[in-house]
Specification:
Oligomer: single chain
Largest sheet: none
Number of helices: 2
Number of strands: 0
Strand content: under 5%
Length: 45
């Protein structure tokens, strides 16, 4: 259980880090404008 718990915690941390990085990227501009169309196309599929 401890191993699964650690993996779960690491997973949540990774999701939080990528989420914050993506959110910050959308605010900064250049990276946000490049990634926004790609995410929209993925959602359409």
């Amino acid at each position: 259980m401890s191993v699964l718990g650690r993996l779960g915690i690491y997973g949540l941390v990774l999701v939080a880090v990528f989420g914050i990085a993506f959110w910050a990227g959308t605010l900064t501009g250049p990276t946000g404008t490049e990634t926004a169309p790609a995410t929209m196309q993925e959602q359409e599929h």
